[in-house]
Amino acid sequence: xxxxxxxxxxxxxxxxxxxxxxxxxxxxxxxxxxxxxxxxxxxxxxxxxxxxxxxxxxxxxxxxxxxxxxxxxxxxxxxxxxxxxxxxxxxxxxxxxxxxxxxxxxxxxxxxxxxxxxxxxxxxxxxxxxxxxxxxxxxxxxxxxxxxxxxxxxxxxxxxxxxxxxxxxxxxxxxxxxxxxxxxxxxxxxxxxxxxxxxxxxxxxxxxxxxxxxxx
Amino acid sequence: xxxxxxxxxxxxxxxxxxxxxxxxxxxxxxxxxxxxxxxxxxxxxxxxxxxxxxxxxxxxxxxxxxxxxxxxxxxxxxxxxxxxxxxxxxxxxxxxxxxxxxxxxxxxxxxxxxxxxxxxxxxxxxxxxxxxxxxxxxxxxxxxxxxxxxxxxxxxxxxxxxxxxxxxxxxxxxxxxxx
Lengths: 216, 179
Known about the structure:
The complex is a heterodimer. Chain A is an all-alpha fold. Helix content of chain A is about 70%, strand content about 0%. Chain A contains eight helices and no strands. Chain B has seven helices and three strands. The termini of chain B are far apart. Classes of the chains: A mainly alpha, B mainly alpha. Chains A and B meet through helix 1 of A and helix 2, helix 3 and helix 4 of B.
């Protein structure tokens, strides 16, 4: 790589030093990104196909909403944290499975007990799964752009979190805006989100490379 | 060896502001720590300096990612580990296709599109049909098309012969024989 001695190499690095714009903290980035994209996505969804936020008394429904919110916040925070070396230990990534498990378990419980029917909306949106993927795309691209300013410590996980948080926002809004039927929610809201997250982790992460500035 | 984390933190923060003296001091202070990590994972003595410098360069290009309120050691450690993993992956890919022998100091290694053969005595094991394609493409530097025209065979036939020749050479050097 280099024929320079250690001192010469250090001299060349020092000579190349410029004041740097320190990355905003992961906490601030999470808040700003979440607020921005939640407003954008919910606004676009409302304009394209109006919906109404109702207070739902079904316990499963509320557990699921909490699951969505936790997943969105955690995955966004983890994605930004993963771009700062030393900030997120690999074992902590797996914490994301807890709210995901709770969300899916609640939906399965609803399917088995059939307790969702009585009071909840039965009208839906055509192509809700397409809407989820489409509306998540700008958020995902923005997230990846912000990640690229950092240092990829684990690219598949970074892309999985970015994709999960981006797609979970419209999926969470769909919980109010589309038919509330656990089978429908699992098949057309959750499954596409999980699939696109896995796809991002395995495929997309290989194609998007931050240009490594490994030259002076 | 113990490291004064507060001092490193201060030096790194000042480096982010462009203070070259602090940056030099930081790099000199952190270099032994990086070397200790590299020595545990990189066993090829020839590569130690390269990996060390790669890590220093990554630290240089990733200065903006350090949070001045946090301990710098995990930051430095993660960057170092990441670059060592990259190095290990790269050398594993190369060595999987590499055969070393003391016989005439020949090294034949295959990368996705290139073959490099140094010191051609080993080619004596090949028949004329297999030797000539290797000489034309790998030693004389002809393209596949040119070599095929010289030998008056199709390009696919040429590729097949080159592939068979390489396999034979690899088997010979590995001490295996399919005959």
